[in-house]
Amino acid sequence: MSDSIKINNSDEQRKLVFLECETMQSEGVVEISSRTVAARPGINWGKSTISKFVTEWHTLKDAKLIEVLEQTRMSPHFVTALNTEIDNRMVEQATVLKATIERQRTELRNLTEDLA
Q1: DSSP assignment string, 41-98
Q2: Which of 24, 25, 51, 72 is geometrically suited to a Cys-Cys bond with 29, CB 3.0 to 4.6 A?
Q3: pLDDT tens, 30-50?
């Protein structure tokens, strides 16, 4: 994001941190920690603020994998590959949405400036 919006709502922070974790995972980032997430553009909070969200993301990700393995009785490698493919497609969609929001934000800013 070129100009970040300050968000103090915990649920919105959680969503953005989860999205950033998913994006990092799809980019092949090995270490996804509160430090690495806090260093990303568009994240306006310190690592202590987002630490609980990053930990929750890791916990949910591991729990989801275990649940799928138990339900499907598929090979762990297949389930991991399938989850990675799903995560990558979700991140692609999220990236498109982020770009659309940024474009609309720019258009709105331009319209507001024209009115002033």
Answers
A1: TT--S-HHHHHHHHHHHHHHHHHHHHHHHHHH---HHHHHHHHHHHHHHHHHHHHHHH
A2: 24
A3: 788 888 888 888 787 888 888
Q: Supply the pTM of this predicted model.
A: 0.54
Ordered by start, the domain boundaries in the chain are: 10-115
> Which tokens belong to 23?
């994006």
Q: How far apart are CA 80 and CA 22, in angstroms?
A: 14
What lies within 8 Å, CB to CB, of 16 at 6+ separation is 7, 42, 43
User: What's the rounded Cα separation, in Å, for the pair 35 and 50?
Assistant: 9
